[in-house]
Amino acid sequence: MESSTIESATSFGRFFLPGPTEVHPEVLSAQTRALIGHRGPAIKELMGELQTGLRDLFRTESPVLISTSSATGLMEAAVRNGVRSRVLSLVNGAFSRRFGEIAEACGFVVDTLEVEWGQTFSADQVREKLASGGFDAVTVVHSETSTGALNPISQISEVVREQDDIVLLVDSVTGVGGAEVQTDEWALDFVLTGSQKALALPPGLAFGVASERLMGRSAAATRKGVYFDLVSFRKQLDNLQTPTTPAVSLFYALAKQLDRIRLEGLEARWDRHQAMADRCVQWVDTMRDERGVALSVLAPEGSRSPTVTCVVLPAGTTGPSVVSAMKEKGFTIGGGYGKLKETTFRVGHMGDHTVTELDAVLDALGEVLT
Ligand SMILES: *Cc1c(COP(=O)(O)O)cnc(C)c1O
User: Fold this and answer.
1) 174 and 83 in a common domain
2) CB of 173 closer than 6 A to ligand 1?
3) Which pLDDT does position 1 carry in this prediction?
């Protein structure tokens, strides 16, 4: 079992989890370079190179913080540095719920606005809730990986900015690199992602951008702790370093991947992800209309993530059975998440996959389901 898993990893295009995602061999092998110290000219040169690529990726002029942690670390950083006392948590799936729970665990007052899993938030819903008053921060997930729904972040940001002094904290873990994110243009106060999702790097790094307003909050924050103190991140970053020892080997992989992203072009990369999402929808339609299998896409048209599709199964077919039948065919797909485990499955189509590789997994899924 172990050896076959390792073997299959050498043939790219069979691993479609919505994170961790399949890592291109070129990116994987970049990690074997000899280590360098994390103080001194060599790291500064590397960090300088990474900053250029990361700023392009986030569409920002601000420094991009690199954290040696998983993405959850920067979700915690967002609330610890950004919240004064009371948060509005927008919940439409498992990861957005987790964002609110993190804020609660950090001792903040959390008020939740929840819509059905698979749905997204409209600007009006958020405006109405904010009018009830007293909030100083909002948490939201851009691409809800548990449901495949994509929130309209630029519209939500506009509504949040109608208010006097509320910061918007955005988890774009399956967004950045696969879906359009315009950090500066959309005036996001904090936006974060992790290495192992749309960026198709090995797990272990997280990236975030903080607005000047958020940095002001951080300077005054009393519960931010040590490891995720954004003021110390920014201070070290001004000197092209990190506060603590970074995962340097992953930096090598990141440098390689940023290079590959630059060669492809970020907009072309967004288009490639959209094409994969469109292909999934088309496949679901064909299965339903021509092959008599009553599948549907959980998220409504117009609110679907370009990086992950959550498919609702007909009664009598369970998510785990589809996942294990696919496993037997040599493909890894995602099961339904949390309360959607039995009734759905998910295909992660992000990172370096193309429509061609996606077609192979959809063909196999078609055989499993008929
Ligand atoms: C995967 C994921 C996370 C958590 O990431 P970790 O790297 O496991 O901490 C958070 N939010 C979203 C939307 C995710 O997809």
Assistant:
1) yes
2) yes
3) 39
Residues 6+ away with beta carbon under 8 Å from 31:
202, 249, 250, 252, 253
User: Which of these three, 231, 263, 295, is where a domain ends?
Assistant: 263
For residues 161 and 42, state if they share a domain: yes
Determine if ligand 1 sits within 6 Å of the CB of residue 140. no
Residue 278 Cα to ligand 1 middle (Å): 23
- Domain stops at, among 232, 263, 294: 263
User: What gap in Å lies between CA 238 and CA 64, rounded to an integer?
Assistant: 11
Give me the domain span that covers residue 333. Answer: 3-22+266-369
Round to whole Å and give the CA distance between 290 and 287: 6
pTM: 0.96
In the predicted structure, residue 8 carries a pLDDT above the cut 50: no
Same domain, 247 and 326: no
β 308-312/296-297 pair status: antiparallel
Residue nearest to ligand 1 atom 5, measured at CA:
71
Claim to verify: residue 275 and residue 362 sit in the same structural domain: yes
337 lines ligand 1 (CB under 6 A): no
Q: Using one digit for the tens of pLDDT, what is the confidence trace for 137-189?
A: 999 999 999 999 999 999 999 999 999 899 999 999 999 999 999 999 999 99
